[in-house]
Amino acid sequence: MTLKELQERQSWSLEQKIDHSLGTLEAFISRMGGIDKVYVSFSGGKDSTVLLHLARILYPDILAVFCNTGNEYPDIIRFVRQMQADGANIQFIRPKFTPRQVWEKYGFPLVSKEISQSIHEIRTNPNSPTSIKRLNNEQFALSKCWRFLITQKFNTCHKCCKVLKKAPFHKWEKDSGRSPILGVMASESQLREKDYIRHGGCNVFAGKGRSKSMSLSIWLEQDIWDYIAKCNLPIADIYHKGATRTGCMGCGFGAQFADDTRFRTLLREYPKCYDMVMNYTNNGVTFREALRKVLAVNRLYLPDEEPPTLFDFNN
Question: b or e along 25-38 (b: 16 or more beta carbons within 10 Å of the residue's beta carbon)?
Fold first, then answer.
């Protein structure tokens, strides 16, 4: 598989992609030994909603598993429970720890997973070869604008997703003996693009490792929306309230961009949830204080801390 071949597949029509995804699903489930050996990893977001809809075309009773981390929008929980009430075979699981406990122990998710990991590793082991490279302005050096996070009282860390989401799913897979069907797309990041090319397709069959199917790999964001419109597919209400992503509602990854509206949406729709997240602490520092410093790099403000403008005075 090459990048050119992936890009060719990404240019297919929606109908071609639907056929391809159904084919990869059927092949994966057959290879695994039937629907009792697989499950759909279901987040309640639009991508996994499309994935579950496709899987249920072939296997109406296929199991979906939803991890309630305690950091989901209320709309997501309602949507998943409604799908369950409407007949979808959905099982709920939970992590061992709450988001508050994870952030207190490991640190805040800020800027991005990659940068948070770099900050964490430099703070933990500043003299390692990797840390030295990241501080010496080499190819993969840590951007100077984020280096102030190294010396802050609060920790910055990338581990919350692993603890709150990946660990519960991996434990459940081990206990159940089932392999996952994931709603990830190669277009979402360079890492996922490289993984698709390296694996040579949507399905990964491992001997003693983790077999998995990523049947939406060649889809693009617009394909998801087109499929939702084509099938008149219900999606979580939070999308109709301005949210463009439905990961953890308090996640700080990407919040430093001017066009990111997650905290504005959270404050408007769920002010109690907003206050709860802002008051999570690490080493005695609140998430509000930490996020305020990250936003200030790009001269941005939290939605309830924005300074007045001329329009405000005129009103």
Answer: bebbbeebeebeeb
